Amino acid sequence: xxxxxxxxxxxxxxxxxxxxxxxxxxxxxxxxxxxxxxxxxxxxxxxxxxxxxxxxxxxxxxxxxxxxxxxxxxxxxxxxxxxxxxxxxxxxxxxxxxxxxxxxxxxxxxxxxxxxxxxxxxxxxxxxxxxxxxxxxxxxxxxxxxxxxxxxxxxxxxxxxxxxxxxxxxxxxxxxxxxxxxxxxxxxxxxxxxxxxxxxxxxxxxxxxxxxxxxxxxxxxxxxxxxxxxxxxxxxxxxxxxxxxxxxxxxxxxxxxxxxxxxxxxxxxxxxxxxxxxxxxxxxxxxxxxxxxxxxxxxxxxxxxxxxxxxxxxxxxxxxxxxxxxxxxxxxxxxxxxxxx
Length: 341
Fold this sequence. Notes:
The protein is mainly α. The chain has one domain: Up-down Bundle (Rhopdopsin 7-helix transmembrane proteins), CATH 1.20.1070.10. It has twelve helices and four strands. It has a two-stranded antiparallel sheet with strand order 1-2. The protein has a two-stranded antiparallel sheet with strand order 3-4. α4 (83-116) packs across α5. The longest helix has 39 residues, at 179-217. Mean pLDDT is 77; it is low at 292-301 and 312-341. One of its GO terms (molecular function) is N-formyl peptide receptor activity.
């Protein structure tokens, strides 16, 4: 590959900005998620919450760890490793992407069930079941990203080699837009948006609403605390990943309606929007762990102690009841290791 013959098309300063965003996401994501992984393995008891957070941190750590290759790909303006590396790398990236999003859903649903059905959660919410559910999430993520292993390929555009998804990659010279190929593009892109973005967003948002409604109904005076936290979580997820999914749909429209293969500028915009989405993986340790009750006090503690306390709060900032709830000590027990007090 001769880089001097690669005639890339630029969109202002988007390329260096994308590399800068990926660099920051790499540093913050590896350090933050690495800290959560270390704490959940070596310093904390094995509970439902630590199991979920371990797998979430692992998925985000995987995605963050893969970013240097993406940084070099974008900075050098072309793919440099070959077709099989293209398949394996993108499959690895999207395995982390889908696993992270599905685990966010699992954590939200777990919190929702614990609040809405505390007695059922106390009897059925176990570490073993959480482990099996997390394993199921990884299997689902593997299925969702399997298309990349089959259809990812490398092609030259304006002398630059790129790694991208192409459903008619068996044809080396012509763009054959048969009905089957068009359907594959539509199913692939819309399925990605629904299963990797809109679906998780709708479930997380619904869980936030149900939790707040239940706490208000039961007279918890600080019911807005979990609402504010979940609002931050949903907002961060939406802000970080919505550009990528919008660009993906625009790209689908150009490919189906204009019969256009990858346009170099469109590819750069797609890469930039994905870089913004990766910011969410670097922020997850802070949004899901470090933001919580008494955060200002925890800020002045050692970081491991703050993290341990945050896990002890079981993901939500637990509100304070207006009056004593039923129980021997005036507290409402929601599940194993989970308590509203």
